[in-house]
Amino acid sequence: MDIKRTPLHAEHLALGAKMVEFAGWEMPVQYEGVIQESLAVRRTAGMFDVSHMARLHFRGPAAFEYLEQMTANDVSKLVDGASQYSLLCYPDGGCVDDIILYRIGPEWFRMVVNAANHEKDVAWLTNHLRDGVSLEDETERTAMIAVQGPNAVPIVNRLAGEDLSEMSKFTGREFHIAGRAVFGARTGYTGEDGFELILGAEDASVVWRALLDAEVKPCGLAARDVLRLEAGLPLYGHELTKDINPIEAGLGWVVSKTKSFIGSESI
């Protein structure tokens, strides 16, 4: 199997990152060091290349009904610009994956899934598609950068040239950094405030360097794992698997109590 590289691969090498294989991708595991990078996120701001995570679009008049059936959380609670943490489940209640679902519009949703589950998730979702909804995989033509830490929002505000601090958690919208369009969501995987930025692959290096110039510390997968463990956030393959249902994983709060979805009866 060929190892994939993110649009920021050359940037990682230029910064002297230690590279490793992860979920079929060559990714930076650390730069300066795990402790320094973890503390940067806790005390100031750090950023992660998370372009290996898969980004999917669902469009069409049946997109809402389809995603209500496929995901555990209540899609009906989402308004335009809002997002939610959710799960894809098997009929027996085990987890296909944990995801973030964004409502862009009434008939347009974006989903981010784990890199290790990319092909499996796309196959699962495709096998359940219905008339009136299309699935588009935008992973290869986009990049994703997570900016996290107590200084993350002020820094992104300054680079965007507008006040984004009024955006509430789990909301997202488009703005510009270094003249490049990004979709920024007030989400993250570290327990800190910040943004996850989705942008065109061709724009990734420009935005990455703008963040570097703003003194955001680049961080690798090792610090990301330390931070998510400290925050009590699950990682698929560890706290979540096909043999661990959401209740056993402590994620009952993600599961709708009012709708029927794949796995709901077993759960």
Task: Provide structural commentary.
The N and C termini lie far apart (36 Å). It is globular and about 50 Å long. The chain has 7 helices and 14 strands. The protein has helices at residues 9-14, 34-43, 63-70, 118-127, 152-160, 204-213, 221-230; strands spanning 4-5, 18-22, 25-30, 46-49, 54-59, 83-89, 95-105, 108-113, 134-137, 142-148, 172-177, 180-185, 194-200, 217-218. The protein is an alpha+beta fold.
Observed structural traits:
single chain, 267 residues, alpha+beta, 6-stranded mixed β-sheet, 5-stranded antiparallel β-sheet, 24% helix
How are the SSEs ordered, and which strands pair?
Layout: E1 4-5, H1 9-14, E2 18-22, E3 25-30, H2 34-43, E4 46-49, E5 54-59, H3 63-70, E6 83-89, E7 95-105, E8 108-113, H4 118-127, E9 134-137, E10 142-148, H5 152-160, E11 172-177, E12 180-185, E13 194-200, H6 204-213, E14 217-218, H7 221-230
Parallel strand pairs: 1-3, 4-14
Antiparallel strand pairs: 2-3, 4-10, 5-8, 5-9, 6-7, 7-8, 10-13, 11-12, 12-13
